[in-house]
Amino acid sequence: MAELSPLAQRLGPGQMVLAPGVYDALSALVAEQAGFEALYLSGASIAYTRLGRSDVGLTTYTEVADSLARITERVNLPVIVDADTGFGNALNVQRTVRGFERAGAAMVQIEDQTFPKRCGHLDGKAVVPVAEMCGKLRAALDARTSNNTLILARTDAVAVEGLDAALDRAEQYLACGVDALFIEALRTPEQMDAACQRFAQRIPLLANMVEGGKTPVQSAAELQARGFRIAIFPGGTARAVIYTLQGYYGSLREHQTTAPWRDRMLDFDALNEVIGTPELMAVGKLYE
């Protein structure tokens, strides 16, 4: 039997993986240096940062694959990657899984929204029929070259069909053979407990923490106590960066200098220390 991947090893019963949201190689590098053991590449954050747009299905397969490849080239942590709807039908799902696997994904997330999709915490979503989603999940499982490339099935049906229907969908997705489940936008602690009571002993469950979203934001320890095994804070990184940039640009525009912000930013040498410039220069000298 093949050895389990580092991420799969961390997803056993009673365990918790806390994966912060990242959107490029720099954010991934800083998260790795902060001591995290997994990362979550959010499609929403790619839309925010690469396009300056909302998470409404504008991000493409190639943009996500490119971002993923740049991240996995720079850091060694397992990356859970948001593949949205798989960017099309079952054949598109297979291309997506193969491409993301080549780019280094540890887990690929596929959801049951219609296309174009939208952020799971926005209103007005719609979901595809269960049979269509099951076909896409089977296609995803068949497409991967290694069982250590994990497939995460997400359902957005809570907002569309209600909790019971969403749990029934998750049951059918579990029967397809997926490696983890993600029941998006659970509204209350009671709904979170209902999901965990049904699935937590059988398969890893992911909890999505969105500041200001539909689901009550809780700590990783609180989520673990409920039965979740993966906690993601996917968009918090982009929101923190935007908040910081608003302050920085506002100050620069007002004062015409960065002096008031010097205690809130890295200088030239400190930045180069973070990104590993001395080590890179040392490698270059080996070939002189």
Protein described:
It is a single chain. α5 (90-102) links the parallel β3 (79-82) and β4. Helices cover 47% and strands 12% of the residues. It is built from 13 helices and 8 strands. The radius of gyration is 20 Å and the shape is globular. α5 packs parallel to α6 (130-143). The model has no long low-confidence stretch (mean pLDDT 95). The longest helix is centred in the C-terminal third of the chain and has 20 residues, at 236-255. The chain has helices spanning 6-9, 25-33, 43-51, 61-74, 90-102, 130-143, 158-161, 163-175, 189-199, 220-226, 236-255, 268-275, 277-285; strands spanning 17-22, 39-41, 79-82, 107-111, 150-155, 180-183, 205-208, 230-233. It is α/β, with parallel strands linked by helices and 288 residues long. It has an 8-stranded parallel barrel, surrounded by 9 helices.
